[in-house]
Structure formats: C-alpha cells, structure tokens
C-alpha cells in the first residue's frame, strides 16, 4: 500500500469536508477548495479524519492513491493556514509597486512590466524589492510565484533578477577570473 496514501488526514475544528460523486469539497475559515477525485479512488470521512482507499493495486492506482491524499492534505492546510511564497528583486533599479489590483515591475527592460494576479491570490509588497504572494491553493500560489520569477530569472554572473527568498544562486566566474 502507498505509504502516503494510507496516512489518515486529521480534520481540524472549523473545517468541513464533503465528498459528492467524484468531487471533494473542503471549507474552512480562509475559503473553500474543490478537487476532482480520480476514478478508482474513494474518500471516506470517519469522525474527525479523512482517509482514501483505492480499487485495485495496479501501478497507476497506487500513484493516484498517494496523490489524492497529498492534494487533500494540502487543501486542508490551505483553508486553515494558507500558503505564502516570498520573492526578492536583485539588481540596481529593480523594483515593484502595487497599482490597484495589479503589480508594476521595473526590471531593467525598456518598459515597465505589468502583472495581473488571479482573483484568489493576494500580492503584497512590503518593500520595493520584496514580494509576498498569499493564497489558499498551494498549486496556484506556486504557479503565480513561478510566473513572476520567469519575467526576469536570476542570471549566474551578477545574480540580478527575480529570485525566491530562500533560493541560492550559484555564481559563475566571469571571463577575467580565469586570467
């Protein structure tokens, strides 16, 4: 049996879980999330815990068993606590500023870059070179952070660009270093 799939998810107080047909809905203090459960996987509520079972033991079902449990656990954590990603802008003149619902970046291009985040995501800018992305959907928070990072990824020589706060940029030696 899948090691992750057989673990039981403890449902905290204030979170409600409903399973209809092949849809799992989780509501909490921060919002509501829905996820489709793959065919052959079933979710079962027992008191204050949620468990997943699979129909058979073929390779695909074993993989989907652990995946379904992990996605449901991420949903429970998201509606209780939410998720957060931090980005940093490194470079002279690189900055971000919030303009209503969208964010304007100055990243060394000849024009400002405008980014409009999805409605479920909040983008905070505590300092001009720091960006904090918050939301309840772990996948969406990571996707928005990756999209912002892809505007100007960090380069290996000076480290300029948009990077995750905990990311380590491996620096390369320039041409003159070898002489």
How would you describe the overall organization of this protein?
- This protein is an alpha+beta fold and 179 residues long.
- It has 2 domains: 9-80, Alpha-Beta Complex (Outer Surface Protein A, domain 3); 83-164, Ribosomal protein L6 (Outer Surface Protein A, domain 3).
- It has helices at residues 59-80, 138-151; strands at residues 9-10, 16-20, 23-28, 31-36, 41-46, 49-54, 83-90, 95-99, 102-106, 113-115, 122-127, 130-135, 161-164.
- The strands form 4 sheets. The protein has a 4-stranded antiparallel β-sheet with strand order 11-12-7-13, covered by helices on one side.
- Strand 3 and strand 4 (31-36) form a beta hairpin.
- The longest helix is centred in the middle third of the chain and has 22 residues, at 59-80.
The first-to-last residue Cα distance is: 58 Å
CATH superfamily of the largest domain: Ribosomal protein L6
Largest sheet: 4 strands, antiparallel
CATH topology of the largest domain: Outer Surface Protein A, domain 3
Q: How much of the sequence is in beta strands?
A: 35-45%
- SSE string, helix = H, strand = E? EEEEEEHEEEEEEHE
What number of structural domains do the residues give?
2
SS elements, strand count = 13
Structural class: alpha+beta
Calculate the mean pLDDT score and round it. 93
Distinct helical segment count: 2
Summarize the structure.
The protein contains two helices and 13 strands. It has 179 residues and is α+β, with helices and mostly antiparallel strands. The strands form four sheets. The protein has a four-stranded antiparallel β-sheet with strand order 11-12-7-13, covered by helices on one side. The chain has a three-stranded antiparallel β-sheet with strand order 1-6-5.
């Amino acid at each position: 049996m899948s090691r992750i799939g057989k673990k039981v998810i403890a449902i905290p107080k204030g979170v409600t879980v409903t399973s209809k047909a092949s849809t799992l809905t989780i509501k909490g203090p921060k919002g509501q999330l829905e996820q489709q459960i793959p065919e052959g996987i079933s979710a079962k509520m027992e008191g204050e815990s949620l468990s997943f079972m699979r129909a058979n033991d073929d390779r695909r079902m074993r993989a989907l068993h652990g995946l379904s449990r992990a996605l449901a656990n991420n949903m429970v954590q998201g509606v209780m606590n939410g998720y957060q990603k931090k980005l940093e802008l490194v470079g002279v003149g690189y900055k971000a500023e919030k303009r209503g619902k969208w964010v304007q970046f100055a990243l060394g291009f000849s024009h400002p870059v405008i980014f409009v985040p999805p409605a479920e995501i909040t983008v905070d800018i505590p300092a001009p070179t720091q960006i904090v992305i918050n939301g309840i959907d772990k996948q969406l928070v990571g996707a928005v952070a990756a999209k912002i990072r892809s505007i100007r990824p960090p380069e290996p020589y000076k480290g300029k660009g948009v990077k995750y706060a905990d990311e380590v940029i491996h620096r390369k030696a320039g041409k003159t270093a070898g002489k």
